[in-house]
Write a structure and sequence with these properties.
The chain has about 400 residues and is of the alpha+beta class. It has 12 helices and 14 strands. Helix 1 runs antiparallel to helix 2, helix 4 crosses helix 6 and helix 6 crosses helix 10.
Length: about 400
């Protein structure tokens, strides 16, 4: 992988992406290049830093609050990246041979064969399967351009894995990374609550687009509304991200309440939203992204893969006694028991990480101490967390 100015050199991918836009090729190329330039000029990236009290650096919080995202650099070690890559590659061999199949290409049981509820989201090559549909409460209001894929591309492929920690021990261990949990505690309080986990897979020439959207559903009209009420996502980058394969964001929109994406597209005159920039990152970087931020991604018409290990957290006050708005928990009120059940996953993750990285100073989740809860991790735990995402705290 070639690098330019310290980041992945996406020059050829930008040319390839623009070429799909016909008469607008030059405009698209300029949009990608200008977005990349603006993204790298922002100050919201650097190593995770805590003060003497263990709180996240005030400068980082200030930049995160201003832009709605921050790029934590070099968080994941090369050793852990290799661990994650092995596990992701293993998962791919366990995908169904086609959408709806219960078996893999080798005739073995597919990863989601006996799962309750949807686990794998498929797309035609370079499609936008969510845009303009009622999926996820209709948050993807417009459909993005769907470039023509090569003739040898598969008919469909998996691009999102839901409830991914059930399937990947490497992702489960990454979920308990002490520095990332320290960030979660600093932003959402020591009793922060889990949200949802997934894998995004955007292979070159195949990876689907994700239409512009905001993630929050529940609290837009709340009298307690603030810029952090719908929580945040961590986006751990296995291979890094570029202007072509990465997430694009409109900085600052997390403060503006519920926005009309359709209106934003109309005002821009195209799907190239005004003020949007790509998240440019390297392997091992982790992005924290406010769920209220307008964001999306174009189909991956470039040459670099993107695999994102995605997991998020909430303030407990945002979910306690609140009616859920997700796939599995719509109309279900999240009481203390429900939140505690969903949080058990973190306990198992902390123990799994302790086994894998015994010399690391682990994170201490204070509610477990207060409730005198303890966890142990072994292979049998996989059965305990089976279908855990039915308890997702989606708001």
């Amino acid at each position: 992988m070639k690098f330019k100015n310290g980041y992945i050199d996406a020059s050829k991918s930008i040319e390839a992406c623009a070429s799909h836009y016909g008469s607008e090729a030059l405009v698209m190329k300029e949009y990608l290049l200008e977005g990349e330039k603006k993204a790298l000029a922002l100050p919201n990236r650097g190593k995770i830093e805590f003060d003497e009290k263990g709180k996240l650096s005030e400068k980082i919080i200030e930049d995160y609050n201003k832009y709605g995202f921050y790029i934590f650099e070099n968080v994941i070690s090369s050793e852990e990246l290799e661990d994650l890559e092995r596990d992701v590659n293993r998962l791919k061999t366990q995908f169904p041979s086609y959408n709806g199949s219960k078996t893999t290409e080798l005739g073995e049981k597919a990863i989601d064969a006996d799962a309750i509820g949807p686990r794998l989201i498929w797309s035609k090559p370079l499609g936008d399967p969510l845009g303009g549909t009622p999926i996820a409460n209709g948050r993807h209001q417009v459909k993005l351009f769907e470039p023509k894929a090569s003739e040898d591309a598969p008919e469909e492929s998996v691009f999102i894995v839901l409830g991914s920690l059930e399937y990947s021990e490497a992702c489960l261990r990454a979920y308990a990374h002490p520095s990332l949990l320290g960030v979660a505690e600093s932003i959402n309080g020591c009793d922060f609550a889990p949200f949802h986990e997934s894998l995004f897979i955007k292979e070159p020439g195949i990876g689907a687009a994700v239409s512009w959207h905001q993630d929050g559903d529940t609290h837009w009209d709340s009298d307690k509304f603030d810029q952090n009420i719908h929580g945040f996502n961590f986006m751990l980058q296995l291979y890094g991200s570029t202007a072509v394969n990465g997430v694009w964001v409109v900085p600052g929109t997390h403060k503006e309440g519920k926005l009309s994406i359709k209106k934003m597209v109309e005002e821009a005159g195209s799907e190239r939203l005004k003020g949007a920039i790509p998240i440019v990152s390297n392997p091992g970087d982790v992005i924290i992204c406010n769920r209220q931020l307008v964001h999306g991604s174009f189909a991956n018409t470039g040459f670099e893969p993107r695999v994102t290990v995605n997991f998020g957290f909430h303030k407990r006050s945002s979910v306690l006694n609140v009616e859920g708005a997700g796939i599995h928990c719509a109309s279900l009120v999240f009481d203390s028991e429900h939140i505690a059940k969903r949080t058990e996953l973190l306990g198992y993750a902390l123990e799994a990480r302790k086994i894998a990285y015994p010399e690391e100073v682990g994170f201490i989740y204070k509610p477990f101490l207060e409730m005198n809860q303890s966890f142990s991790y072994c292979k049998s735990v996989n059965e305990k967390i089976k279908n855990y995402n039915l308890f997702d705290l989606s708001i």
